[in-house]
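wait is this the right file?? whatever heres the structure
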């Protein structure tokens, strides 16, 4: 059976238009993950109801449903010159649309938009994966009494042994396909697109721990943390960076925050926690408290 992909991440072009062997890593109700032979990369196959994600291929709903019904975990997958063979399905990438997950902001924060961001976050009562709401984020006591916030504080301080301790605490901490601590690290890395203060030691240490033994977190989480280290982001994070770079309206900011919150069970909330907390900590290190809720 021949099918045509609708859309794919430009970051996959070299992989998709060469030859390699993959396998089915996991099959879910609305998506399939493919894994390379070295087990250090994933490709997500999903429908257009998903936001644009790093290393993803998007197909029509009927095609996806057929693949999910007929595909088995560990099944071999062949990628050859713009074709992906999954079972009896030959998926063509030729003439498919594409997008880029790679994004590195050179913009500065717009202070008016950031104030609107925190004004809205302080109204969000949904609980993140560490069981506290974004409405509490920014209180000084949080950074002294919550272990996960203390770990972030260690990461942004720039002291190598403290950064290692912070990574060790957050990496793999929590439940699900992407544990809450990992999503906080992604949010932290996204916030640093504006600040560019996370040092090379932190990034090198995180990368080493993602690929070291024992394995400290999930395969899916390792994939998305690697993407973040390579500045590959999901579409809602792209939009968040853009609205904070411009003089955006409250409605624009609220819409993107809600789009992020809808990611996973608590993944979006955990990313926002890491993102906002990193902004607060970088500002505090400069001697200011302009984003603190005190």
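ok assuming it is, sequence goes like this
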């Amino acid at each position: 059976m021949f099918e045509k992909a609708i859309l794919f991440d430009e970051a996959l072009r070299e992989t998709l238009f060469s030859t390699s062997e993959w396998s089915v890593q996991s099959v879910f109700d609305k998506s399939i993950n493919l894994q390379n032979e070295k087990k250090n990369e994933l490709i997500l196959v999903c429908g257009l109801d998903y936001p644009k994600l790093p290393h993803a291929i998007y197909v029509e709903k009927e095609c996806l449903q057929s693949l999910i019904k007929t595909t088995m975990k560990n099944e071999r997958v062949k990628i050859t010159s713009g074709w992906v063979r999954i079972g009896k399905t030959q998926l063509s990438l030729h003439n498919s649309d594409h997008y880029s997950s790679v994004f590195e902001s050179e913009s500065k924060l717009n202070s008016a938009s950031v104030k609107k961001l925190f004004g809205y976050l302080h109204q969000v009562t949904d609980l993140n994966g560490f069981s506290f709401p974004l409405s509490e984020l920014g209180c000084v006591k949080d950074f002294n009494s919550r272990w996960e916030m203390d770990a972030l504080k260690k990461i942004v301080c720039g002291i190598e042994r403290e950064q290692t301790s912070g990574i060790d605490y957050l990496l793999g901490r929590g439940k699900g396909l992407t544990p809450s601590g990992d999503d906080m690290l992604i949010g932290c890395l996204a916030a640093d697109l504006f600040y560019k203060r996370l040092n090379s030691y932190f990034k090198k240490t995180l990368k080493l721990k993602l690929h070291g033994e024992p394995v400290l977190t999930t395969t899916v989480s390792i994939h998305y943390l690697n993407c973040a280290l390579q500045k590959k982001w999901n579409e809602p994070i792209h939009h968040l960076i853009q609205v904070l770079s411009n003089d955006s309206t409250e409605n624009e900011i609220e819409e993107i925050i809600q789009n992020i919150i809808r990611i996973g069970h608590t993944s979006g909330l955990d990313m926002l926690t890491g993102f906002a907390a990193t902004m607060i900590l970088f500002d505090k290190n400069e001697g200011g408290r302009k984003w603190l809720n005190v």
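The chain has twelve helices and ten strands. so i think its the right one actually
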